[in-house]
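User: I'm writing a short methods note and want a consistent example. For Cadherin-12, I'll paste the sequence; you return only the C-alpha cells, no commentary, since I'll be parsing the reply automatically.
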Amino acid sequence: MLTRNCLSLLLWVLFDGGLLTPLHPQPQEILEAEPRENVVPLPGRRSSAQRVKRGWVWNQFFVLEEYMGSEPQYVGKLHSDLDKGVGTVKYTLSGDGAGTVFTIDETTGDIHAIRSLDREEKPFYTLRAQAVDVDTKKPLEPESEFIIKVQDINDNEPRFLDGPYVASVPEMSPVGAYVLQVKATDADDPTYGNSARVVYSILQGQPYFSIDPKTGVIRTALPNMDREVKEQYQVLIQAKDMGGQLGGLAGTTTVNITLTDVNDNPPRFPKSIFHLKVPESSHVGSAIGRIRAVDPDFGKNAEIEYNIVPGDGGNLFDITTDENTQEGVIKLKKPLDFETKKAYTFKVEASNLHLDHRFHSVGPFKDTATVKINVLDMDEPPVFSKPVYTMEVYEDTPVGTIIGAVTAQDLDAGSSSVRYFIDWKNDVDSYFTIDATEGTIATNELLDRENTAQYNFSIIASKVSNPLLASKVNVIINVLDVNEFPPEISVPYETSVCENAKPGQVIQIITAADKDLSPAGQRFSFKLSSEASNKPNFTVHDYRNNTAGIETRRNGYSRRQQELYFLPIVIEDSSYPVQSSTNTLTIRVCRCDSDGTIQSCNVEAIFLPVGLSTGALIAILLCIVILLVIVVLYVALRRQKKKDTLMTSKEDIRDNVIHYDDEGGGEEDTQAFDIGALRNPKVIEDNKIRRDIKPDTLRFPRHRPPAEDNTDIRDFINQRLKENDADPSAPPYDSLATYAYEGNGSVAESLSSIDSLTTEADQDYDYLSDWGPRFKILADMFGEESYNPDKVT
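Assistant:
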C-alpha cells in the first residue's frame, strides 16, 4: 500500500504539475485524486490573467487510537505544487494538538502523531496547514483546514451505569411477566465495527427468569412462583460487546428481584377449640382472652376480621382485631355471675378483609373455631339494690329525723352480713348519719335550703367476713323549701320621669325575686303602700305575670318644686305562710325634649336659663378667660418697657445719651442741661462751673480722703475688693461696675464724666493708690501727671 501511495504521488507530480496532495497510510480510505481549480494570483511567476490550479486537495486523515509502537505513528503528507524539492518551501501546522500531539516535517510535509490517542477522550482534531516561502517568509498558498480522526478500537467494555438494580414482581405471575429492563453502555464508536454492539445474557438466576439479548428486558421464566416458598432472588446479568463473539469485552451487574405478596392464602385457626377461664368479677369492657388465626400472606393481605357467630352466650361477649398482632381480642359486654351461669360456648369466624378475585377458586377465605368460657367463682363485695339513691327532706327538719335507707346484699354462696358507713370527703357529709346495720340515713344538723339545696355523698357497704370487699353507691338528698323569706325587687332600678310626662304613662317595669323556692313556682303581687295610695303622683299596675308597671298620675312634674319622689311598693308571694316586704323606688324628675328623650337630670341644670346649653356657657367662660390673659400680658409688657428705660444695663459701660429735639449750644455747652438731674433730681448743684466761659479764678481741688468723710462707701468698696481678690473664679481683668446714683451728699461725688470738673487739673487721682494693687495702673497713669496751669483753657 505504501508503494501504491508513492506511485500515486509520482503520477500527480507528472500529470498535474505538483499539486499539494495528502497521502494517507490507511487502507480503508481512497484518497481524492481530482484537484479543485481556483484563480490564485502568484506575484513574480504568473500574470493575474492566467488561470491557475489551487495547490490544496484535502481528505480526512485517520490515526489509530491506543497506538503502542516505538516510533511516532505516521498520519499523512502535505505537498504544494510550488514546492520544487529544492528546500524553498516550509510547511507549518497549527490548531488542535499542533506541536503537542501532531508534528509536521517543515521540508517534506510529513505528519506524525507523537503520543498515543484515545478516541473516547477526543474523537477528532481540527488543524490548519500552510506553505511558506523560506526566504521571504510569505505564504505561498492560502491557509487551509483539515481534520484528523482517531480511528476506534475495542478498548472499552460495556458498563451498567444504573446498576445494581432492584425490582419486584407479584407472586403467582404467569410466564413472561415483565420484571425490569437493564441497559449497558459501551464507550466505543458505534459507527465503526462491532465494538459497541452489546448482547445481554443471564449468568445466574435461571430457570426463574430470562432476558432478551438485544433489549435487556427481564421476564419471569417459571409460573406460579410462591412468595411464601421463596421471596428474594438475585440475578446476575452480563453485557458483552462485539455481538457476543469470542474476544469481546463484557460487564456484569446484579438484579435483586422480590416477589410481592398477593392474597392467595386464607386465614386458618391452628386449633378448632379454644378454652378460656374468666373470673366472675371481671369488669365490663375488659379483655378476657385472645385467639389467633394464621395467614401466611403479608401486609394488608394478612389483615383478619373476627366475628362471633350468633349462638349460646354470644350476646355477653364481643371480639375485636388487634391491628399489630392480628389477634382476636374477646371482651366482656355484660357482667358475669357464677351463681347464675358457670360456662358459655360460642363460635368465632376469621376472614380476610381484602380479597383477590383471581384466587376465589382456591376456596373460601375464612375459618371457624369454637370458644368455651368457664366462669370462675370469686368472693364478691355486697351489691346495692339501686345504682343511685335519691331522697328528699324539708329544711329545718329536726336533728335525728330518718329520711331514708339503703340496702346491700352479699350474693355469694356463703352469705355474710353487711356493714354501712358514709364515705367522708368533706364537712358537708357531716350533716347526715347512717345506721351501720340497718342502713337508715338521718339528719345530723339543721338544714337550710338557701345555703345548700342538694347534698351528694357516697355510702360504702362492706362484708363483715371480709371488710376489704366493699361496694359504693351515691346518695342524693334534695332539701325542700319552706317559705320563710319575703319577695324583694330583683335589681336596684334607676327610675326617671320627664317634666312634661302625661297621666297614665309607664315609666318603669319592675320584677321581684324570692330566696325561697316553691315546687309550683312563685307568684308575686304588687301594690302601693297605704300612705302612698292617697298621693296623686304615681301608681302601680300589676300585670299578673310577676311584673308590674309604674305609671304617672299627674300632667307634668317640676324639678324646681321637687326633684326626687320616693314610692313605697308592697310585694307579696303566694306561698304559705304569705310573706311580704315594702320596697322603696326612687324616681328622679328630668328635663326631656318633646319626644321624651332625657336631656338632663342634674340639680345644677335647674337654675340655668332656658335655651342656653352647657356648651354655650363653657364657650362664654373660655372667652372671658382669654380676655383676662390678654389684659394681664399687656400690663406686664408696659411695666417691663418702663423699667428697661430707667435702668442701665450692667454690661454697658458707656454713658447714657438722651436725645432731645432742641438744639444745644455746641460742644462746650455743658450747662444747657444737667443730665445728673435726670438720674437724681435731688442732687445738690453746688460748685457748678460753666465750661463755656472763662472762670475768674481757678480753684484747685483739695485732697480729701474719702474714708474720712464717708466710711460707708469705703467699707462697701473694700468689701467688694476683698470678695474679688479672694474669688478664684474671678476673671484676670478688672471689672467695672457703673452706679447711676451715689446718694445725697456723697463725698465721692459722681464717677460720670458728665459731672466732672472743667479741667483735668481739677481732679485729684492720688487716692487711687490707696485702692490696692488692682488700681495701681490707673494710679500710675493719673497720679504722676503734674498740674500745669498753662494748659487750662
